[in-house]
Amino acid sequence: MTLTFIFNVVLVALLLTVATWIIVARAAFSAAVAFVAYGLLLALVWVELSAIDVALTEAAIGSGVTGMLLLGAASRLRETEATAVPAGRPLTSAVAVLCALIAAGLAAIVLFPPSIVFTLAPQAMARLPESGLGNPVAGVLFVYRAFDTLLEKVVLVLALVSVWSLAPDRFWGGVPGLHVYQQPNSVLTLLAQLLAPLGIVMGIYMFWTGANNPGGAFQGGTVLAAMWVLVMIAGLQNVPSTDRRALRYLVVLGPSIFLTIGLAGFLLANGFLAYPPGYAKPLIIVAEAALTLSIGVTLGLLTAGPPERVAR
Amino acid sequence: MMNAITLFGLCGPALVGLGLFGLITNPQPVRKILAFNILGSGTFLLFGVIARRGAAAGLDGDPVPQALVITGIVVAFAATAMAIALLLRLFEETGRASLNSSNPNNASETTDAS
Amino acid sequence: MMPSAALLTDATTAEGFLLVLAIVLPVIGILLLFALGGRYIERIVLFLIPAGLGVAAAVFTAVWRGGQALVYFVGGWEPPLGIALRADGLSAAMMVTVAIVIGGTALFARQEFGQPRGRPEARAPLVFWILLLAIWAALNIIVVGDDLFNLYVALELLTFAAVPLVCLKGYEDTIKAALRYMLFALFGSMLYLFGTVLIYGAYGTLDIVLLAGRVHAEPVAWIAAGLMTMGLLAKTALFPFHLWLPPAHAGAPAPGSAVLSALVVKGSFFLIVRLWFDAMPGLMNFAAAQVLATLGAGAILFGSVLALRQQRLKLLIAYSTIAQIGYLFFIFPLAAIATAGDPWSGFGWTGGWMQLFSHAFAKAAMFMAAGLIAETLGHDRIAEFGGVARALPITTFTFGIAGLSLMGVPPSGGFVAKWLLLQASVMEGQWWWAAVMLVGGLLAGGYIFMVLGKALSSTDVPFEARDSVARGREFVALALALCAVLLSLVPLRPSEFLQIGRPAVPVVAPP
Asked: pLDDT 10s per residue in chain A (312 long)?
């Protein structure tokens, strides 16, 4: 039993404890706070699984922006908790047994893995030098399965439109109702002033280094989004109104540039989302830069919510 | 003798079971959304174990599942944002945040066009 | 066990780029609309709808002439590393159906969701058109996508576009319906994703064509298929997962309901078929097929009976959707376990898809008609429909012929579909499905004539028509209903077009 193994056992035990707490806690707010811790523990697990890119994404999105969303929602809905009627004892026990059975069944699949282990690592690594990238995960995201990444960006835009569509007609184009705690000289203001510049630099670095090391547009963009939301919550920056042209352009900048590069592949290279030989890495960096910006703005706006007051 | 990877591999289904339980039994939508996130993270964890088992060619893990998990995490966040926005809007309209089984026949009739 | 029949050897075909175009055109529309805003809606949509129709027609023609599927490897990367797009006869027919229904919806919705000139950008118009284009893009990916994870992203896109359509009008019950739909859909997506994870873990690829060669009947495959099917069933609103559908489809604005009932629920159904017939052939057995079809039968009976009890027209039509979706699931026992030859040349295969196409046209027309009636009367309470036929003769006629297709009365696509399915069930010796279909037809007749009877009756209290609806919109609805009738021209035998590109692999495990 090495030290690492003991560490992993403790990590898993903590993770499951926090997860159980999230499910059974009385108040939604404490469950949401636990969720932030859960995200960080989960990021540690991803590090132990040698998936640093995923760990970064999980920490930034799972703990970061999802945590902010859930905390905000839980605090706004605090007064409704008294009226919730929990399910009866027998039903809860029955469901618990069912879920335990399902978990056991899935665990059995894990414990008896298939005899042949298929893996795409060799193929991914073999073709990676053609694109000039050093990070195989970036290779999958932007070269082999770039179509998924493009669609995912469209999904984000749709999610933003959906969230905005919930605003009443009169508030369309207005300012999102992000809760701003404008108290100068408070801890929050200090945190925002100190952390934000660091976070922005870190976000840009994460995007830049993602070509060869863990990181990339999604991780960097999410960190930028989290910093932006922090700065807005602390009142250091005004929440922008949603009809500002610049905002709209920033959101579509990433997918538009990526799509343009992809379509240019019809003329300059093998086809859609193919890169001309030798130009792959610069094109990918350009696309990732635009995507980092777009992801940052989109995720920040998704966290800010639908417009709740008229633009000044 | 179990190794760490198998340990994480069992953690995944445990989280799936927990998340499923929370999703079905907890009446409040915001708790369902939390449970859904746990369910999702359990699924991704399983994918991560599969990736780790696919270590080859000098890599510590199969990069394809890792990339798919990143995509999945982003999509799951977008879904959470939408669900929360819907829930908060419902709360603003009705002052309640629950989906008690409403009889569709009792739904108020629309009085304007279509 | 898996036969070693020659599988499809794929390579990018010449017209494969059309598949990319079909997906990219709506995406360009979404980005342009979002960035440029309300003023450009007319121009962008007016260009994209015909362009998309043209691409769909081009794909159809290419498949027809070539007699083989169109294939495209995105980025030039072959599966399992890359993502493939594949359009066989079935996909091409689906693309054309989707394009026509979306085009009709766009024409119908121009008045209701037109951006008023000179006024600042309004919420509902911009959101509606972006959602419509997103649904179109998502459905195109679903019918041509060959990669299970790519299909997952497409499913999410479809959900994120369909849910806000439900609560576009912003009333309290529509928001509740949208939230319930969202929770069901998320649950379904999670199950689908989990199945995908299991499949990659077991077989190392997510490409459907490659999986067909690697999958064999073992517990992992069964569990994965079961989970994914359950998730997709929740999205298709098959009984007993139908709870979310009636308030959602009834609460959406009329063009939204048309697209939701006609197309969106068919997307997840299409994937269930792809899963069992293409990705994991040999897994389907008699019992599983009977289970799926039994749920379908339950949907037919349950949905039809509940439709009879509805007092509001839009809810009646929504329950009718639940019932008609049930017919689709007869494709499993009637095509998957065909006793002679391959499944595609049987009556069940063609019958099931004819049911999907004709229902798409008929249901879209029906919801549009309901919308027009509600606009004229100011409500949609069936009991007070007296005099509607006199006020809106074209719309009532549209409702009538759409209803005939749902009942399965000739001449209509619905008749062709049900006749083929009846033939198949008799030929397979599973006559019980025939009995269910006949009862379903009778019940459909019940609720259709309930509405028509009221509409045709005269009223003592003449109502003031609230808004005179534009003739153009009435004709759009009529045109879609006529499409359902036009499908009756399809011959009453297995379609050769729907067999193009189908693999030569038997679907069911030999006994």
From this structure: 688 889 999 999 999 999 999 998 888 899 999 999 999 999 999 999 999 999 999 998 988 899 989 988 888 888 777 766 676 788 888 889 999 998 998 888 888 877 778 888 888 888 888 888 889 999 999 999 999 999 999 999 999 999 999 998 888 888 888 877 777 778 888 888 888 899 999 999 999 998 888 888 999 999 999 899 988 888 888 889 888 889 999 999 999 999 999 999 988 888 899 999 888 899 999 999 999 999 999 999 999 999 988 876
Could you tell me if C101 and C109 are in contact, meaning their C-beta atoms sit under 8 angstroms apart? no
Give which of C495, C317, C505, C489 is closest to C410, Cα–Cα: C489
Residue C197 CB coordination number (10 Å): 29
Q: HSE, CB side, 13 Å, CA atoms: give it for residue A202.
A: 15
Minimal Cα–Cα distance from C111 to chain A, Å?
18
Is B114 inside a domain boundary? no
Q: CB count, 10 Å around CB of A23?
A: 20
Domain boundaries, chain C: 288-511
User: ipTM score of the complex?
Assistant: 0.94
Q: Which residues from chain B sit within 8 angstroms of residue C378, using beta carbons?
A: 111-112
Q: How far apart are CA C196 and CA A191, in angstroms?
A: 42
Q: How far apart are CA C267 and CA C155, in angstroms?
A: 8
Contact check, Cβ <8 Å, A252/C123: no
* Secondary structure element (H or E) that encloses residue C175, with its range: helix C172-203
- pTM for the full model? 0.94
Question: Quick one: B111 exposed, middle or buried, by C-beta within 10 A (0-12, 13-18, 19+)?
Answer: exposed
> What is chain B's length?
114
Contacts of C28 in chain A (CB under 8 A): 259
Say whether A19 and B15 touch across the interface (CB within 8 A). Answer: yes
Q: For residue C284, give the 3-state DSSP assignment.
A: strand
CB pairs under 8 A between A and B: 265
Q: Is residue B112 part of a domain?
A: no
Alpha carbon of A13: minimum distance to chain B alpha carbons (Å)? 9
| H or E segment to which residue A308 belongs | strand A307-309
Q: How far apart are CA C230 and CA C271, in angstroms?
A: 12
Q: What is the DSSP string of A89-120?
A: HHHHHHHHHHHHHHHHHHHHHHHS--SS---S
Residues 17-76 of C with CB under 8 A from B: none
Quickly list H helices, C79-171.
Answer: 89-109, 123-144, 148-166
Question: Where on the phi/psi map is residue C312: left (φ > 0), alpha (ψ -120 to 50), or beta?
Answer: beta
User: Are C365 and C406 spatial neighbours (Cβ–Cβ below 8 Å)?
Assistant: no
Cβ distance of A151 and C141 shorter than 8 Å: yes
Query: Count of CB contacts below 8 A, B vs C?
Result: 116
Strand, helix or coil for residue C85: strand
B89 part of a folded domain = yes
Domain that holds residue B79: 4-96
Quick one: DSSP state of residue C206?
-
**Shortest Cα–Cα distance, C465 to chain A (Å):** 27
Based on the structure, what is the number of domains in chain B? 1
Mutation for C interface: B28, B112, B114, most C CBs within 10 A: B114
CB-closest option in A146, A158, A255 to C134: A158
Min Cα–Cα distance to chain A from C31, Å: 6
